[in-house]
Structure formats: C-alpha cells, structure tokens
Amino acid sequence: MQHKLNIDSSFVEEQEQELNYKQQTIDELQEKINSVSQDQRSALEEELSDEKDSYQMLNETLVGQRRSLVQRQELLTQHQTLLSHREGNQANQQSQQLDLSPIVNQIERERQKYSQKLQQLQAKIEQMRHSIQAAREIIDTQTEEQDVKRQELQTMEQNLSALQIANAQIWARVDLYEETLQPIQDSLDGLRHKLQAISEALTQLDESGDSQQQAVTQMRSFIDNLMA
User: Fold this and answer.
1) Average pLDDT score, the chain
2) Greatest extent of the chain over all pairs of C-alpha atoms, in Å
3) Nearest to 79, CA basis, from 2, 161, 170
4) DSSP of 100-143, one letter per residue?
5) Residue 209: what are its φ and ψ, rounded to 5°?
6) Mapping DSSP to helix (H, G, I), strand (E, B) and coil, where does residue 198 land?
C-alpha cells in the first residue's frame, strides 16, 4: 500500500506541476492579450480559451485524485498503526508515514482561489442586478411618460375633430345665410333703382317751379335716407 501510494502521489505531484504550468501559460496569454492590437487578439483569445478548458479538465481530475490520496493515506495510517502496535514499534509508523502536506496545501490554495473567484462573480452579479433594476426604473418612467403623451394626443385629436365638425356647421350656416340673403339683396337693389328714379323725377319737378320746393326737399330727404 505504501509503495502504490508513493507512485500515485508522485503522479499527482507531476499533474500539480502541470496544472501550475498551465496557470502560468494562462497568465502570460492574458498579459499578451492586454498588450496586443485588436487584429492579433482573436487568435490569442482562442488559445487562451483552449488553455482554460484544459486547465479546468485537469483540475477537476486532480480533485478526485487528491481526495483518493487522502483517503488511502488515512487507510494506510490505520494499517501502519495496527502494524506498529503488533510490532511494538511506534517509531516505525512515524518514519513510514507519507507527508501529504504539499497536497493539502495545494488543496487549500485551490479552495482559496475558487473562493475569490466566487466572490468576484457574486459582486458582478450584484452589479448587474443593480444595473437591471436601474434600467427597469428608466423603462417604467418612459412608459408612464408615453402613456401621458398618448392621452394628450387623444385629447387633441378629439378637440380637432370637434373643431372640424363645428367648422363644417359654420360653413353650412354661411351657405344657408348666403342663399337666404341673396333674394333680399336683389330686392334691395331693385328698390334702390326705383328710389333713384323717383329722385330723378323729383329733381325735374324741382326745376319746373319754386312753389313745390319745400315738398320736394322733404321727399328727397326721405328718399336719401331710404337709399342710405
């Protein structure tokens, strides 16, 4: 069990180193992406995405392997303890125990790293939630303003329709008045012509004698008033 555990531990340590190399590669690619132009960024971003996928797969594999090593180490420790009791040699157990502190430390570092990423994601989610809420409030305000403007427009359309109806009624009345007043105007024009003829006749009488001067003057004044 000790021999098999040593082999598996060495393999896991190699994978841990490979995981660290991949993390370094990811960091280097990220720095390059931040410094290159837009044309060169696409290929680097694709390479970065592949490296992250590879890192994720390897890390998920190591999670199970680390857990298995810890369990096997506990089982081995139990067997070593039992063997030491049987042999009466407690020092043998201590000398044969495998030091898994590097793996435990690596697990703790990974836990802290993912904990930080989780906190960052939670902060981004909270920020997005505030942005969505602000956008929703703006949309609600604009919707209310549009409703008010729509109501105002409907009121203006109703007023315009009422004005158009009233205007049509007024023009109908004007046409009716014109039709009604035209015969009256024609009669007045005929009366004016008749009065003009009477005035001319009176003028001739005025020229024929002075005895009828006063009566002619009165009649002319009356006729002038009628013509006016």
Assistant:
1) 79
2) 180
3) 2
4) -HHHHHHHHHHHHHHHHHHHHHHHHHHHHHHHHHHHHHHHHHHH
5) -175, 155
6) helix
